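During the no-cost extension, the postdoctoral fellow (Dr. R.K.) reprocessed legacy sequence entries with the updated structure-token encoder. One reprocessed record is reproduced below for audit purposes.
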Amino acid sequence: MHDQNFKNLILDYPHEALAFFAGAEAQAMATAKITPIRQEQLQERLGERFRELDVPLQVEWPDGERAALLFVVEEETEARRFSIHRLAHYCLDLSDLMNTNRVVPVVIFLRHGARPARLSLGGDRHCYLDFHYLACELKGLAAKDYCDSDNIVARINLPNMRYSDADRLAVYAAARAGLAQLEPDRERQLKYADFIDDYADLTDEEIGTYREQYFTERGEIMGLSQILRQEGRQEGRQEGRQEGRQEGEAMMLLRLLEKRFGVVSDAVRLRVQSADEETLSTWFDRAFASDQIDTVFQ
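Re-encoded structure tokens follow.
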């Protein structure tokens, strides 16, 4: 799951991802064209050595002001599982395939752990292969240093960084605010709201506190579907029956509609209150992605 999450993030935001995860090499890339290398081609050439969840990116500058660079970005959830031999092998194969020596290996470590930093092959007199990589250990980064960042990849990853328990909700709020401020596309807002929720992993109590402290004060609603849905389910459980769950979901949907579109009509209110749970869930998703209330019910 983690590998795929980060692969999606890198492919959706390649410039921002390289600037954040590989800043030492990703200088002056604003005008560069970044292209994911087709994995089918790699798989055909590399066979069993191909690693599906590596993300190879080709960076090309206009007018050839700099020679093209290949970035190989790998996410490793557990540092102890990282194999520097496997990464070196992959980079050498990619270098051969693309006929270039300009390859930059980058590894994103989600958690702390012992890991090899360098691979040196040689004998008593010489080192014949010296391989290392750029490492981005997310838990080694202080979240407070990125809470105001204009890099959306950094803001989305705030919950994966280092912070005190007392700052959990502030970090979560900064991630949410960054997503809302830096990503105008509704579908991507929903997609990466789930990313933030997954890695923040707030408790029920924290979700309630966050809603009280940040939802109303900041007017932040984008990406709060998990919070609102959970609140609806909790109210339903208190009723102890299916009708109670639907009533809770309906109430949260009406509240969301009013936040997005203003006071709802009696006809809309009646329609929401009489809908089944599956329909409410569908309307809930549409409410975040729609610019007009009419499109929610289409």
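The chain has two domains: 2-140, 165-296. The first helix runs from residue 2 to 12. The remaining legacy entries will be reprocessed before the final report is submitted.
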